[in-house]
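Our preliminary data section would be incomplete without showing what the modeling component actually yields. Below, a chain of 271 amino acids is followed by its predicted structure, encoded as tokens that our downstream tools consume directly.
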Amino acid sequence: MAVKVYLVGAGPGDPDLLTRKAWRVLQSAGVVLHDDLVPQEILRILPLTAQVVNVGKRCGAKGISQTEINALMVQLAREGKIVARLKNGDPLLFGRAGEEMEALRAAGIDFEVIPGVTAALGAAASAQISLTDRRYAARVVFVTAHREGGTGLHNERHVAPDSTYVIYMPGHRYAELAAELQAAGIGAEIPCVVISRATTMDETILRTTVGQLLECPAAASPSLIVVGIVAGIATGVDAHDSEFSSKLNEEILQLARLHPYHDLHGRGGAE
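Predicted structure:
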């Protein structure tokens, strides 16, 4: 393979969700610089000949700065090494890929982005949530809670009822997030699902509502929250979904029947 830097998406956690191209690049890399949230299941497939370096920044504890990561990628590439910058999910979604591509361009280093399955898609698949549904949801909004000043929901007002929100990196700020969601016009009765370590053996799924979110136990990182009518339309409930009561299920179905977007398509009841 050509000497360059590859920004590689590791996917949400399950090694089987790596793309064939990502797998091939990782098997050929001389150095792998990985984020802290990349699971051991992924790291175990790396070749023994590769130099593997954790450059993660987690929970505000920065062992290495972004500037230092940028400089390290440039240095290693100039030494003639194939560098894989391995990121959880997809590099281009909340992965600081923009800053890294800018640094590589400025240094004249060739690079390529290898897309990955982003956490929202892996988590939605595990929880059997269709993020869009022509009956209920025609808009998906990805926001991060890991930023100064809240999630970015402060800019959302009069939210359309056909919206699904996916909140990345919520941490344990459930009370604040519930307040921000309701301030944005998302009702306390709207379903939401907290999904932790999606697609891995340690995955957990907790189904609740915006109003009850603050009562939920803290989920292990990495986690995300899916908010919207579609988060409550489940085809079945697994053993680890025991918190999702039949009473709540009936309330959600009733809410869906009254949904204006649902009526727009001429369907009088939830399927």
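Residues 5-114 form a domain with the Cobalt-precorrin-4 Transmethylase; domain 1 fold (CATH 3.40.1010.10). Helices lie at 20-28, 40-43, 66-78, 97-107, 119-126, 174-183, 246-257, 260-264. Preliminary results of this kind motivate Aim 1 of the renewal.
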